[in-house]
Amino acid sequence: MHRQKSILATICIQAAVPLVTYLPLFLSILIVDNSWGISTSESAQWYDMGVVHYAAAWGPAIDALASIACLKPYR
């Protein structure tokens, strides 16, 4: 029973990690493109694209490390 719970936790973590790591990327794209139709007096250039670059660069690495850490006990 403990092994089944561990496997279920591993699957849940692997499903949640990409959402957490890529959420800043998707939100910043929506804000910059103004896809929500929010009327602002400022230009769309105000947003720092560093968050987008961070998520795009480190997201896959964070996902891979989380997967390795979760699956390590099952070697």
UniProtKB/TrEMBL annotation:
TM helices/strands, residue ranges: 7-31, 51-71
Domain of life assignment: Eukaryota
Statement: the UniProt record of this protein carries the keyword Membrane: yes
Keywords assigned: Membrane, Transmembrane, Transmembrane helix
The protein's name in its UniProt record: G-protein coupled receptors family 1 profile domain-containing protein
Upper classification of the organism: Eukaryota, Metazoa, Ecdysozoa, Nematoda, Chromadorea
